From TrEMBL:
The lineage of its organism: Bacteria, Bacillati, Actinomycetota, Actinomycetes, Mycobacteriales. It holds the Pfam family ECH_1. GO terms for molecular function: catalytic activity. Belongs to the enoyl-CoA hydratase/isomerase family. It comes from Dietzia natronolimnaea. It comes from the Bacteria. CDD domains: crotonase-like. This is Enoyl-CoA hydratase.
Amino acid sequence: MTPTGRDAVMVDRDDLGVATISINRPDRMNALDHPTVCALVEIISEQSLDPDTRVIVLAGEGGAFTTGADLQAIRDGAGTDEAPSPEATMTSAAELVRAVLTAPVPVIAAVNGPAAGVGVSLALASDLVLMSDDAYLLFAFTNIGLMPDGGASVLLPAAVGRSVASRMLLRGDAVAAAEAQQVGLALDVLPAADLRPAAATLARRLARGPRRALELTKKSVTGATLAELDAALAREHEGQCELLVSDDFAEGVASILEKRRPDFS
């Protein structure tokens, strides 16, 4: 059975206080069901507020970073008491991004494969992004009848500008690692075997730095570039709650699981 909740998240902290938080659902390409998103929020918050933590590294086990929402879990749970409401889904996505952005320590995303949907938001919310050369960012929201969420509607334009962000989001593009680096979404692109060691080296370099100075630097940069975060999350919440119960989203989920083109209304 695929682990869920805290069982789906691995945590390791080294002697310098580098906490590596890994999503461990490789049989689902680390797709996130609601309990796992909630667990990630809790664990990131716990680790970031621990005075012994100096840096956080976010990673995915197996061949993916995270492919976003677990569409199989959504379809299996549709109409049942276990299915989270659209409001709960949007609230947890916003809390996940906030947990990363407000962490008082630097957060590094080690993107080792596909990052899609809210998985892209998780990477973009991180302070530094490293990618393996076979990884990509998939802005898949419109491909399944949804709009960007997890703050992607402000995180992406803040990083690449309105024109490039509109292209990526409206077309549902997959952005290869090389292009991600070119437009400023990734700090570095490395062979897959070198990604985790490179992330560890960068994290340990930061861990040796002045914790309070790094915290205030991060806070200042976030405040300067993401002043519209609250408004963006509110817009995403309202719009996505409408779309999550739409026929187009149901068709988008079905088309992905059935490996066919969607037929939107």
